[in-house]
Amino acid sequence: MTQTNGKPGAQLIDRVVLILDLVANARDEGITLKDFCDLTELNKATCHRILSTLVGHNLLAKVDKGRRYRLGTKMLVYGAKAAKGPGLRSQCQPAMQRLAQLTGETVVLMARDQDDSVCIDRLDGECLVQTLTGAIGGYVPLGVGPGSLAMLSFLADDERDAIVARNLPRIGTYAGMTEKRVRELIDETSTQGFALDRGELLVGVAGVSVPIFAVESGPVASLGLTFLSARLTPELLDKYVNLLKEEVGRIAPNLNPLDRRLTAPGRA
């Protein structure tokens, strides 16, 4: 377990955040006390004490007759309040709505979280299609999928190479994704100005994404469309890329470069 420093107060916060992250990334059925002990390397008494306190504050909830834990209702309140703030998501919602109306496709907004690409908003299209992240809050390692490639490909060379090196073990779990293939896709994306998946990762599903840059900053997010790969033609691709770039052109000037939520490698 990584700790920010050795002070007891900071260690406790680290443990609480780790537990919340584990629950947030778990499957719908939740996580057991034994799972927490195994994953955090904390003893049963410490885990139980932290979990009970979080349940008492409605940050976690007990399910399955008290045997498992899921995120509590207070987390939903926090999430709703954060979404209404002056951050990236609210800035992009008008553009996403226009894209959904003009294309009928699924619109996906991704942001960087350390070495991952996180879905922070999406609007489902007329035809429901599977996406790599699954839903808002889902994530993939940077380097997998057009949404993440649209950000990764425009980072500084040394930062990008370091991320690829760290992510390779996870990237390799996706069909056909090797270091060579990732670097080919990075080159294609940086040359074209957009990232494209013709259906390599999910059978029958294509996607195209463009980076969103804050003023005088690097890529802070990506905006993309997901659709059936059978519909992909050069004409449709040109249309979608132009629409995405037009909307991103409207968004970027309104992003505050001093907003650390946009420039730091964390969730916007």
Automatic annotation (TrEMBL):
Keyword Transcription found: yes
Family annotation (InterPro entries): GAF-like_dom_sf, HTH_MetabolicPath_Reg, Tscrpt_reg_IclR_C, Tscrpt_reg_IclR_N, WH-like_DNA-bd_sf, WH_DNA-bd_sf
Pfam families hit by this protein: HTH_IclR, IclR_C
SMART domains listed in its UniProt record: HTH_ICLR (SM00346)
Keywords, sorted A to Z: DNA-binding, Transcription, Transcription regulation
Matching PROSITE patterns: HTH_ICLR, ICLR_ED
Residue span, HTH iclR-type domain: 10-73
SUPFAM superfamilies on file: GAF domain-like (SSF55781), Winged helix' DNA-binding domain (SSF46785)
GO molecular function, one term: DNA binding
GO BP terms: negative regulation of DNA-templated transcription
Top-level taxonomy: Bacteria, Pseudomonadati, Pseudomonadota, Betaproteobacteria, Burkholderiales
Residues in IclR-ED domain copies: 74-257
Protein name: IclR family transcriptional regulator
